Amino acid sequence: MKYLILIISVVLMACQTTEKHAHDAEGGHLTESEETPTIIHTKWTEKTELFVEFPALIVGKGSRFAAHFTFLDKHKPVTEGSVTVSLIGQEKGIRQTVGNPSSVGIFKPTLIPQKAGIYQLVFELNTPNLSDKIVIQNVRVFANLEVAINTLGNAEEDNGSITFLKEQAWKIDFQTAAAKNEEIFEVIPTSGVWEVAPSDYKTVVATSSGTVDFITENLTEGSKVTKGQIIATVNSSNLSSNNLGTKIQNAKAAYEQAKSEFDRKKELYESEIVPKSEFEQVREKYQIAKSNYETLSSGYSNGGKKIIVPFDGFIKTINVSNGGFVEQGASILAISKDKSSVLKVQVSSIHALNKEILKDLWYQPTKGKWSSLKENNGVIQSIGKEVNRNSPLVSVFAKVNELVQMPEGSYTDVQIAYGNSEKVVTIPETALLEDYGKYSVIVQLSGESFERRDVIIGKRNGNKVEIKEGLKVDDVVVTTGAYQVKMASMSGQAPAHGHDH
Q: What is the three-state SS of 105-148?
């Protein structure tokens, strides 16, 4: 007869469930002739999840632990480091350290209790990247097997839960999150258009007349460019009039002549031979000649003026073909920074929005991802005050303070939060499973035990959604990989264990 008791102690929650399998002190499945009850605990911290299975602790008998450690970030197994397990009572305790996992994610320390009673069971994980400490309270050591069996009683092997092994979860994109008690606002669902701030956009013009020669190959609209990159030259060497090379030579000659005159007059002025007014006239002529020469020659080489990229970004428009002629001041191309940083949203005037009642704004910087304007230190720049027959909507302009990967002019879903908030149970939107308008989630009962639970949703604020019925605070739901767990529930049988305990 199999005996099974599951005691689930959770930092963020407390829940109890029955697993579909159990393991002996060596990690194998219990057979009908083996009677030692198996204890299972699942515990979460901010960093890790511990799912541990071990035979009930009995005086004088060794209990081998199968401690599954998972990094909550990315939900991947701990592959290196040590684990120390301690059994601590009022008088003294015992402990053992294992220096590395026996298999991926699983550590197997063994303890032999010496005295019956109530203890703390402490797991200390140390890896190159983090350390964590997990304490399980009120762990009982039994005087003998008979007391353990009589105390723990019988447990049914199958309670209808879904078995999804740690080894399965570790091999796929999998993530969980606890339901929280958070503020939820009333929202106006709408859409917005990505625009570029004036400071993030620049038109590059020709600083001289000539033909445009593109240096960068395959330059098209949307091409990425970097600050300081030379992408073209404006060449006037083949022009009979308005030739920049000739102008530079003339300017250089005028500059050198003015400099020579300035140097000569400066000596005479310092010797008090020429008056100050005459020296200042020469100095002004010299400064004008110098400025004119430097302006004309700046960026000039090989008969042409260089077109230099002013900042990192991409080509928005190209207004001239390769070899085409441009007059001085004509637009050659437009460059935009590699982000759209202004969001223009239009809403009905019936909402009478102002900066005081507008609490937040959620948008999608890339498809499928929600961001909060407030959490990213963005600001509402302005809210329109007037409407007319041709434009009955009020415009709201928001300055977004993060990299936006959506093209300028593209649309994004937007939620505008306003008014007062209320605290409700919330979960990430990605945890929802939808079937014909009805919603459910996959709840993690313990390390390898799950159940599908129907929920009733309420308001949505960005990537979080209100749960009106079906969950309570600290219930753990699957946010990534829920579909795979759902499919496991439809397979009709529990999967075979994938690890050797």
A: CEECCEECCCCCEEEEEEEEEECCCCEEEEEEEEEEEECCHHHH
